[in-house]
Design brief:
Layout: H1 7-23, H2 25-31, H3 37-56, H4 69-74, H5 78-105, H6 107-129, H7 135-158, H8 164-190, H9 207-231, H10 241-245, H11 249-276, H12 278-285, H13 288-299, H14 308-333
Helix pairs in contact: 1-11, 1-12, 1-13, 2-11, 3-9, 3-11, 5-6, 5-8, 5-9, 6-7, 6-8, 6-12, 6-13, 7-14, 11-12
Length: 334
């Protein structure tokens, strides 16, 4: 399998993760013109599954380092299979709420609040489970990102929208999604031998196998979570599977693309975890709110017509996110 051999490359992979995690929401925005997010989300999970199948039989199977996917999955202990599956279930529950929030409040609000909160809580969860990196720089960066999240929340409150009730519900859903999302990565990381991808502990998983099982957890749990929100949506009337199968191929492909974009980012995050450490790998990937906010502000014009004070708050948010992420990078290089 392919293994990252340097901290610098691991950081590069984590920044690509940031771009992917902050950009997949664009496909939801594109599909939302004629497609409910509940229907989009099925294609999104299918995209993740298709991507991981391609990954494990290419990078996860080629090369002389570590164990190939087929060898690894056969020797995996049940406790690690369960751990990665739980990670997939937790992630899926949180991400469906995040998708609902995007449909109500927009990318520039949902991602900084939901994923930003997940970053802050997740760094603590992952760092104390597997400490790696200078805590001064790591938690200094986290504090700056917390301030950035507060700035985004204030800006969202100042941003006047016609559907105020829907916007408030979207903010609440984003917060709940962030709390849930902070825990999923730890369960997946627990299934991997983070100290030695080259010769992992027998019974534990390589990052490729862990990601595969994690993706299975997402897909299987979607039959429960997404069916539930289809029948009892947060906004609007219920939708049916008949409507999903009546969708155009081009619309389905947009959702599948979104899943592939997210899958690429997640795969690189796991592959980089050995050299960067789980706290740093997770935190850098969760810089996604800044990317999503850029898309929301400049491409989707979600804050168009806002006051100067709101725009200043958004500017401060971007600056603090950049400085905070820089501190997190320094924490691993110290």
């Amino acid at each position: 399998m392919y293994i990252v051999n340097s901290y610098t490359l691991a950081v590069i992979f984590c920044f690509i993760t940031t771009i992917c995690w902050g950009s997949w929401g664009n496909t939801q925005k594109m599909a939302s013109k004629n497609w409910r997010y509940e229907l989009y989300y099925w294609d999104y999970t299918i995209g993740i599954l298709l991507f991981v199948l391609l990954l494990v039989f290419t990078l996860g199977s080629f090369g002389s380092g570590g164990r190939s996917f087929s060898e690894d999955i056969q020797q995996l202990d049940n406790q690690y299979i369960i751990s990665a599956l739980i990670g997939g279930v937790i992630f899926n529950a949180s991400n469906i709420l995040l998708s609902a929030s995007v449909s109500m409040a927009g990318m520039a609000v949902a991602f900084p609040l939901g994923v930003g909160l997940a970053l802050v809580l997740g760094v603590f969860v992952n760092y104390f489970s597997a400490p790696k990196g200078d805590p001064f720089w790591l938690f200094g960066g986290v504090i700056l990102i917390v301030i950035a999240i507060i700035c985004n929340g204030i800006a969202a409150g100042k941003n006047k929208k016609e559907n105020t009730g829907s916007n408030k519900k979207g903010i609440i859903l984003a917060a709940i999604a962030g709390i849930l999302m902070s825990f999923f990565y730890r369960f997946v990381a627990a299934a991997m031998d983070l100290n030695n991808f080259e010769s992992p502990t027998p019974g534990m998983a390589t990052p490729y196998t862990a990601f595969f099982i994690f993706a299975i957890g997402i897909f299987l749990s979607n039959f429960f979570f997404n069916t539930l929100v289809m029948k009892h949506p947060f906004v609007g009337s219920s939708v049916s599977y008949k409507e999903y199968f009546a969708g155009k191929i081009s619309t389905h492909m947009v959702g599948i693309l979104g899943g592939c974009i997210w899958g690429l980012g997640t795969a690189l995050s796991y592959i980089a975890a050995e050299k960067a450490g789980t706290a740093i790998s997770y935190a850098l990937g969760q810089g996604a709110p800044m990317i999503a906010a850029l898309w929301g502000v400049f491409i989707w014009k979600e804050f168009i017509g806002s006051s100067k004070s709101t725009n200043r708050l958004l500017g401060v948010m971007f600056i603090l996110f950049v400085i905070g992420l820089s501190f997190i990078v320094l924490s691993g290089g110290s």
